[in-house]
Amino acid sequence: MTTFDYGPIEFYAIGFEGDRPGPAVLQAIDDLVAAGTVNVLDLVFARRSPEGEIEVLELSDTIDDGAPALDLAGLASQDDILYLAENLEPGSSAAILVVELLWAKSFAAALYDAGGAVIAREGIPAPIVNAFLAENAD
């Protein structure tokens, strides 16, 4: 059976009002890491000034204590970050998070060994799922 060093990864741009997310967001990321669900590969912050300029801040520039350990800091390129942050409104910010999906690592190896591959993937944000289910509850 094939063994991969890393499982599938996903990039997320998580938007916030103001300069940056609060400490609860970092705690939630730490909880996912501690549970073995994900491995944080890279995390940077982008913010759009009121004048419309995008500034990119490395994690080490924004957090003194309690920052998660990053396995592959720098994996998100400047082009990736600017692409993911392009829809930021002036005065808002985003956490650009790159995570390895640890739960899918052995599944990815099994797919590879079987000659299979994921050919499409679509995510649905939790607020939309929950709103839909609440509207359609019996």
From TrEMBL:
<dbReference type="Pfam" id="PF19850">
    <property type="entry name" value="DUF6325"/>
</dbReference>
<protein>
    <recommendedName>
        <fullName>DUF1269 domain-containing protein</fullName>
    </recommendedName>
</protein>
<dbReference type="InterPro" id="IPR046288">
    <property type="entry name" value="DUF6325"/>
</dbReference>
